[in-house]
Amino acid sequence: MAEAALRVLFATSECAPLVKTGGLGDVAGALPRALARLGYDVRVLLPAYPALDGLGREEAGAIELAPAGGLPGARIVPARLPGDLAAYLVECPPLYARAGGPYLDPDGRDWPDNALRFAQLARAAAWLGRERGDGGWSAQVVHANDWQTALAAAYLAFSPAPRAAVLLTVHNLAFQGIFPAECFDALALPREAFSISGMEYHGRISFLKAGLVYADAINTVSPTYAQEIQRAPLGFGLEGVIAARRDALCGILNGIDTELWNPATDPFIARRYDADTLAAKAENRAALRAELGLADDAGVPLLGIVSRFTEQKGLDLVLAAAERLLDAPAQLAVLGSGEPALEDGFRRLAAAHPGRVAVVVGFDEALAHRIEAGADIFLMPSRFEPCGMNQMYSQRYGTLPVVRATGGLADTVEDGVTGFVFREPHAEALAAALARAIDAWRDPARWRRMQRAAMARDFGWTQSARRYGALYAQITRPISSGCASSA
Ligand code: ADP
Ligand code: GLC
Fold it and tell me: Is 382 in the same domain as 243?
């Protein structure tokens, strides 16, 4: 099967479980594996962050990348990710060997040299997307993800053929990689890239715009989001650029890692269960209440939240509706971190309602699993949501989600069947949807039916990985640059 052996470089700035700040990490940790299972020769490209120091590296296969523009020299070193997935690490100690997160310093500020850090990553991706004449591996498709690797499309667009085709996956259009015009010279791109039909954006440079303009195809992580970004406000200023590339744009829904997120085998939870042993879920709820200091009151549903604290996630709606939610009555368990105002708001809420609201500020993978298993209802009132992973994890755990009808939430939750959906981004609409959820919770037979319907949904990666495969095949055919599956 010729297409199955296609060589794909999956370029990403994070990859679960080693480096993760959100859903991109989850996708990068699972989609390449799903593609490998389908027979693709897929390799993951990552910066050599300190978190990856323990990975086995094949020094003999290292490729030297010469300095260019303001970008230092680097080495691209073959490595193996956990589970034996092939990878390349971009070793460039001045850019990546530091404590802190992939994007932020230990104080939560953007690294000041992020333009260089991610231009270097994209340049390495493009390097592996060209035949180098040394007989080494080169990709036929460079699969770039978000602004951090989008510039690979520009590097390759200005490379002589033969070169890899580029697919850009947009996970979140709110993050665009915009930098001052003065950074342009450091990127080692031809001058013509700095134009309105290239990566210039209101006098500055935009890495994401470069990807949108130069990629052979573009996809978002849900069909609904592919529609939403063609207009303001969710185009975030790029709606014109995106609408102009409508024919190359489609939506492919994310999947979930059904091994990592499986209540029947989850090592993090108090008691494992499946759709036939749902009564055991109550033990997880009791354990979670005990862990978080919530009152042990079986007559009150427990609401869960696991989220980045940003405007996107609509958590201010939860704060605005909090008194009504708690009066339902209900308890609330929250895990997240981000904007200080939201962190403070949730801390205050917990202080005002001891035993009824528990808030953990931080990033804790194991607790995220315990909330999915222990909560009755999961809240995700996002203002926008390109796909969203937690509403899918929740359904798999029989924890029915209450979501706003946007992006991937609209595409994955069926109102009244596997969860509860509301439209307006207002506290009243959230409270009304939650009231419907609690009514249903009070009817055990109905609740079980819904839990089983949610748990029976197939959110695995196989189908979506096949769609990506079809899209790769389409863009590597010389005559075509359209989309394999339309929104
Ligand atoms: P986004 O990528 O926009 O943050 P997603 O729903 O796609 O949203 O993915 C978020 C991922 O990050 C999920 O796996 C979620 O469980 C995880 N996550 C978010 N915040 C935390 C946290 N504070 N602790 C642990 N996991 C978290
Ligand atoms: C982004 C989006 C989220 C999506 C994730 C993975 O972080 O905010 O909705 O699920 O990427 O694609």
Answer: no
DSSP state of 191: G
The verdict on 248 and 294 lying in the same domain is no
List ligand 2's pocket residues with C-beta within 6 A: 22-24, 27, 171-172, 221, 254, 385-389, 408
Per-residue pLDDT of 358-388, as tens digits, reads: 999 999 999 999 999 999 999 999 999 999 9
Range of the domain at 191: 3-255+462-475
- Domain of 316, CATH number, reads 3.40.50.2000
Q: Which atom of ligand 1 is nearest to the CA of 20?
A: 12
| 36 and 174 together in one domain | yes
227, 407 Cβ separation under 8 angstroms: no
Please give the full DSSP string across 386-419, using - where no structure is assigned: SS-SHHHHHHHTT-EEEEESSHHHHHH--BTTTB
387-429 pLDDT per residue, tens? 999 999 999 999 999 999 999 999 999 999 999 999 999 999 9
Mutate to test the pocket of ligand 2, among 145, 172, 218, 261 (most ligand atoms within 8 A of CB): 172
Q: What distances in angstroms separate CA 56 from CA 77, 105, 199, one per listed residue?
A: 10, 26, 37
pTM (2 d.p.): 0.95
Report which ligand 1 atom has the smallest distance to the Cα of 337.
23
Is the domain of 301 the same as that of 251?
no
Determine the atom of ligand 2 nearest the C-alpha atom of 225: 9
Q: Which one-letter amino acid corresponds to residue 228?
A: E
Does 301 share its domain with 356?
yes
